[in-house]
């Protein structure tokens, strides 16, 4: 049976764009039509990305100790969340963590540090890590996520070989004051643009489930398109105990799939990544997310555990997908049960960054 969203997919595949009104309709699709909607979004995904999945791996360089008050974040100012907090990893520790992810099949390493923004010394430190990774693994992409950048820092990171810079818009501008007071939406938008203007691709996404309206989900999806994001992580709120959004549960697996489908229609050619909170909110429908998304994080997040990396790799293989950048048969290793990604092997590493 042909549905109205199939005609939208046809238009997207011939170079057209989605309207905000159509994006609203996608979020309102009846449960009975959800699987046909996923199939329509999957046509777009397969047109631009085939059956490949880009596997990303997070390395948490600095955990906790953040002066910002983002209400969703376990590392926020005043957070009582029970997480590991530690200073900067040594370059050797960071490289060992990255190597573990690459050995397991990751073809994009995300170097993340908490805080408002890095010092020039921090940028130089990350630049050294990037340079070594690119020398040893020229086929692996490296993304940095260090907060709000100051003058000259984007250029330094790009010069050292950093492929992308992540700074999520997180939510709609109209909702931003409800989730953070120590910086504003415009500072985030400017950082994404600054990174793009200085040679790095823009990795920027959202967190769903923070009390926003459906209209605000559409608003942030189109804002990400306007800012030129070509890698769009879609997180689902992990309501950490000890944060203002603790106990804030409002998403169902089907709502999550509708959100992912809407983002794919708005960003047809982008790397749309199913990110933090997928295990908690999508639950048994996780495999369907890869019909829409062509990217995921392998294993754990910044301050919370994901499902074991081996299960992620098995899910990709069971769907008949292959890992982007892997060998001719899509070979990948297995993520060790514990990896040296932080002080004390096995530290859980949240995409709510």
Automatic annotation (TrEMBL):
Sequence positions that bind [4Fe-4S] cluster: 66, 70, 73
Pathway: Cofactor biosynthesis; biotin biosynthesis; biotin from 7,8-diaminononanoate: step 2/2
Domain Radical SAM core: 51-278
Entry-linked Gene3D superfamilies: Aldolase class I (3.20.20.70)
CDD domains per the UniProt record, alphabetical: Radical_SAM (cd01335)
GO molecular function: 2 iron, 2 sulfur cluster binding; 4 iron, 4 sulfur cluster binding; biotin synthase activity; iron ion binding
Cofactor note: Binds 1 [2Fe-2S] cluster. The cluster is coordinated with 3 cysteines and 1 arginine. Binds 1 [4Fe-4S] cluster. The cluster is coordinated with 3 cysteines and an exchangeable S-adenosyl-L-methionine.
EC id: 2.8.1.6
EC top class named in words: transferase
Biological process (GO), any one: biotin biosynthetic process
Cofactor: [2Fe-2S] cluster; [4Fe-4S] cluster
InterPro entries from the UniProt entry: Aldolase_TIM, BATS_dom, Biotin_synth/BioAB, Biotin_synthase, Elp3/MiaA/NifB-like_rSAM, rSAM, rSAM_sf
Protein family per UniProt: Belongs to the radical SAM superfamily. Biotin synthase family.
Protein name per UniProt: Biotin synthase
Organism: Tessaracoccus bendigoensis DSM 12906
């Amino acid at each position: 049976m042909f549905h109205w969203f199939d005609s939208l997919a046809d238009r997207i595949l011939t170079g057209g764009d989605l309207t905000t009104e159509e994006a609203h309709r996608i979020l309102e699709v009846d449960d009975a039509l959800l699987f046909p909607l996923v199939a329509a979004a999957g046509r777009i995904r397969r047109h631009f990305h085939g059956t490949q999945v880009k596997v990303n791996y997070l390395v948490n360089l600095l955990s906790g100790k953040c002066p910002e008050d983002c209400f969703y974040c376990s590392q926020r100012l005043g957070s009582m969340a029970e997480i590991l907090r530690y200073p900067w990893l040594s370059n050797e520790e960071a490289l060992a963590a990255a190597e573990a992810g690459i050995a397991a099949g990751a073809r994009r390493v995300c170097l993340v540090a908490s805080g408002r923004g890095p010092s020039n010394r921090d940028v130089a430190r990350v630049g050294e890590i990037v340079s070594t990774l690119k020398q040893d693994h020229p086929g692996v992409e490296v993304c940095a996520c260090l907060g709000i950048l100051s003058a000259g820092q984007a250029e330094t990171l790009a010069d050292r070989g950093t492929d992308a810079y992540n700074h999520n818009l997180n939510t709609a501008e109209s909702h931003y004051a409800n989730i953070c007071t120590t910086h504003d939406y415009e500072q985030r938008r400017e950082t994404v643009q600054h990174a793009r203007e200085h040679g790095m691709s823009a990795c920027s996404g959202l967190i769903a489930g923070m009390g926003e309206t459906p209209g605000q989900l559409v608003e942030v999806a189109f804002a990400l398109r306007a800012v030129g994001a070509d890698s769009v992580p879609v997180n689902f709120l992990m309501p950490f105990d000890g944060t203002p959004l603790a106990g804030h549960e409002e998403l169902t697996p089907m709502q999550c799939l509708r959100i992912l489908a809407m983002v794919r229609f708005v960003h047809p050619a982008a790397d749309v990544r199913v990110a933090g909170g997928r295990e908690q909110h999508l639950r048994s429908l996780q495999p369907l997310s890869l019909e829409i998304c062509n990217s995921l994080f392998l294993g754990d997040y910044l301050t919370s555990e994901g499902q074991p990396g081996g299960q992620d790799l098995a899910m990709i293989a069971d769907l008949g997908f292959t890992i982007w950048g892997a060998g001719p048969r899509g070979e990948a290793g297995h993520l060790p049960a514990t990896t040296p990604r932080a002080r004390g092997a096995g530290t859980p590493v949240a995409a709510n960054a």
